[in-house]
Structure formats: structure tokens, C-alpha cells
Write a structure and sequence with these properties.
Helices cover about 40% and strands about 20% of the residues. By secondary structure, the chain is of the alpha/beta class. The strands form five sheets. It has a five-stranded parallel β-sheet with strand order 2-3-1-4-9, sandwiched between helices. The chain has a three-stranded antiparallel β-sheet with strand order 10-14-13. Strand 11 and strand 12 form a beta hairpin. Helix 2 runs parallel beside helix 13, helix 4 packs across helix 7 and helix 6 packs across helix 7. The longest helix has 25 residues. It starts with 12 loop residues before the first helix and ends with a helix. The structure holds zinc ion.
Length: about 375
């Protein structure tokens, strides 16, 4: 399993090419880091397609299992979809959150949980063993997968019926086969389902973590090279740039590094290897269509397939004659000896929209 995911393979370049043609090149450029810029960009690039998908979602529902290595930006894409299609068009659930909620509140709400479990739980473990195993996963060797599914079902039962995006399922190898009949389990029997997978060079994740800065007051996240705050000053004593929160309420609070961020992706590797392994298993499943989103594109292919403003920029700062000079250049990441540009989230999302419309024949 060791070599999995260290290479960013694009086995099928035609998928990557969906970024540009058939999406037309734009004559104007857009600031894809702003809501306004994105709105105009999506309208020009895929306005009709987005209208049709929105209409489709009014009358149809489907289930999407999101699979990606940790920190690949799933929540960013989900957020963009909300922005684009509206909050009301889909439900989003994260299985990790549901399990944590259960672990936190089971003691207080045991009766509520137990009565639901008695009705709906079916599995290989005795119910009380499964509950114990899920409450104490660090000491238990049992895998209470069916109980997790019951918890997910409980959550879904409380939501209005619409398209469902699931994050964090399947989470382990034994859960992959459950995804084949998950929709029956939650009474979405006739809903089509689809895997959504995000591919990216792991060095993208590594650098995102290494340069991350957080505001201790409001928790807003920045990056010194990818998303610097507007407020920056030069500290002559330490010969370094100091970044401050741009949230007016925070009064220029100095941004800090989170403990361990220096190490980048390394501490996450066991988890990320597991995620990539699950993606490989999902790739092999017949009968469930897959949507593949590629975060990056080889530098040599970029000219034909993307426009400059769709590429993530890297910022650098220089202190000269009492002034701070800010520069940008395309962010180049290396992976397996090749150079890649990392795309901004909006063009990556276009790949999702295009493939979704193909799978469900939204025309
Ligand atoms: Zn702040």
C-alpha cells in the first residue's frame, strides 16, 4: 500500500480537458477569490448548464459519496456548490460529525438513541457491544459499521428529502461494500448514486498546511503564501513579515501558526494513505458512476486548457526602501518529478458540473 497516492496520475487526459473546451475561453478575466468574480465567471462559463442542473435538482434527488484525501478541500467545493445552486438544493452530512455527536451526547440522550437503535439496528455485533465499541473506538477492536450506518440513517430521517452529499462514508475498507446498497438502507431506493473523487498532488496539501496561519480571536484561516491577509507589516528585528487578521472586529490581531503545522502533511500521512486506498477501491466498483475532480494540471498542458486567472497564485513579499512590495506568480507544485499548477476551486468545480450533467443526462 506504500506507493499509493504519491503519484498524481492523470490516466485520462480528456477528463482534465473538460476544464477548458468544451467550456469556452473567456475574453475577460475574473477574480475567483471573490463571490462577485465567481458569479460572473460561472455565468459566462457554464450559465446554461448551471440553470439546467438547478432545475434538475428541483425535481430529482441523488446520493453523492465524496471521497478525497483529508484536507483536499471538500468543504470548499461543497461551499461553492451552495453558493452556486442554493442552500436548499441538497443536504450535506459528515459521518465523522455524526459519530462525534453520538459520542458526546449518548449519555444524556441514551433513551432516544436506544429506542431508535432497537427499531432500526441490524448487524453482526450485539447492539450493546456495538454501542460500547463506538463510544470507545480507541480501546475496542470491534468494528461497529452497521451501528454507524444506523446513526447516519437516524440523521437522514430528520432531514427533508433532497439530494444528499455524504462526506466520510465509506471511511474504512469494510464500509466500501455497504455503499453498494446504502440507498436502500436509508429508503432512497430509487435514487441514483455516484462517487465524487478529488485528486490532487499531495504537495498541495503539504504546502497549504505549512503556510497556514490562524487568527486566535476569530479563528479565520489564512496562508502567508496562498491567501495572505491584507494587513502585513515588516518586523526588522526578526527580519520577517507579520500578518494580521483583516476582520475589523479583531483589531489587527497577529495571526499565529497552529502547533504541528510546520510538519506539513507528514502527521496526516497514515490517514491520507487510507483515504487514497479507499478511492482506489471505489474506482474498482462496477455500477456506480464516478465524478473525478482534478485540482491540478501539468504546466506543459496548461496553456491549452486553462486561463491564467484560473490558476492559484503564490504571493511573495519583499521589504525595500521602507515599503512592502507584494508580488504574485503562478504556484508551481512538484509531484513525482512533474510540475503542476494548482487550480482555483471554481474551475475544478466546473469539472464536477460537466460530469454530473453527463451522468444524469441533464441537457
Ligand atoms: Zn480575526
Amino acid at each position: 500500500m506504500d506507493d499509493i497516492g504519491f503519484k498524481y496520475h492523470i490516466e485520462n487526459l480528456s477528463l482534465v480537458s473538460t476544464i477548458a473546451p468544451p467550456f469556452k475561453r473567456t475574453s475577460e478575466t475574473y477574480d475567483l477569490n471573490t463571490v462577485k468574480g465567481r458569479r460572473e465567471y460561472f455565468k459566462v462559463k457554464a450559465g446554461k448548464l448551471i440553470d439546467k442542473i438547478s432545475q434538475f435538482l428541483e425535481n430529482h434527488t441523488f446520493i453523492a459519496y465524496w471521497l478525497a484525501p483529508k484536507n483536499a478541500g471538500k468543504s470548499t467545493y461543497i461551499g461553492l456548490l451552495r453558493e452556486l445552486l442554493g442552500q436548499h438544493t441538497f443536504n450535506y452530512i459528515a459521518v465523522g460529525d455524526i459519530v462525534r455527536e453520538f459520542q458526546k451526547e449518548y449519555k444524556q440522550k441514551a433513551q432516544e438513541y436506544d429506542s431508535y437503535f432497537l427499531k432500526h439496528y441490524r448487524g453482526y455485533l450485539k447492539l450493546n457491544e456495538a454501542v460500547e465499541a463506538l463510544l470507545h473506538p480507541d480501546v475496542s477492536k470491534l468494528k461497529p459499521t452497521e451501528l454507524i450506518l444506523t446513526l447516519v440513517k437516524k440523521k437522514i430521517d430528520t432531514l427533508p428529502r433532497k439530494t444528499l452529499f455524504i462526506d466520510g462514508f465509506p471511511r474504512t475498507e469494510d464500509q466500501v461494500s455497504y455503499s453498494l446498497y446504502f440507498r436502500e438502507l436509508i429508503n432512497y431506493r430509487n435514487d441514483p448514486d455516484v462517487f465524487v473523487m478529488i485528486y490532487l498532488p499531495l504537495s498541495v496539501i503539504d504546502e497549504r498546511i505549512k503556510y497556514r496561519r490562524v487568527c486566535p480571536k476569530c479563528g479565520k484561516s489564512f496562508s502567508t503564501v496562498l491567501l495572505p491577509s491584507e494587513h502585513v507589516k515588516y518586523d526588522a528585528a526578526g527580519d520577517e513579515f507579520v500578518f494580521m487578521c483583516d476582520n475589523p472586529a479583531c483589531n489587527k490581531e497577529v495571526l499565529i501558526k497552529k502547533q504541528g503545522d510546520d510538519k506539513g502533511i507528514e502527521p496526516l500521512m497514515p490517514r491520507i494513505k487510507k483515504d487514497l486506498y479507499l478511492m482506489q477501491l471505489a474506482e474498482k466498483l462496477y455500477g456506480v458512476p464516478k465524478i473525478k475532480m482534478y485540482n491540478a494540471i501539468e504546466v506543459k498542458d496548461a496553456d491549452n486548457l486553462v486561463q491564467d486567472y484560473e490558476i492559484t497564485e503564490r504571493y511573495s513579499f519583499e521589504y525595500k526602501n521602507g515599503k512592502i512590495i507584494k508580488r504574485t506568480s503562478p504556484w508551481v507544485v512538484k509531484d513525482n518529478g512533474k510540475n503542476y499548477y494548482s487550480l482555483l476551486a471554481a474551475p475544478v468545480l466546473l469539472q464536477f458540473l460537466r460530469q454530473l450533467s453527463e451522468i444524469f443526462e441533464i441537457t
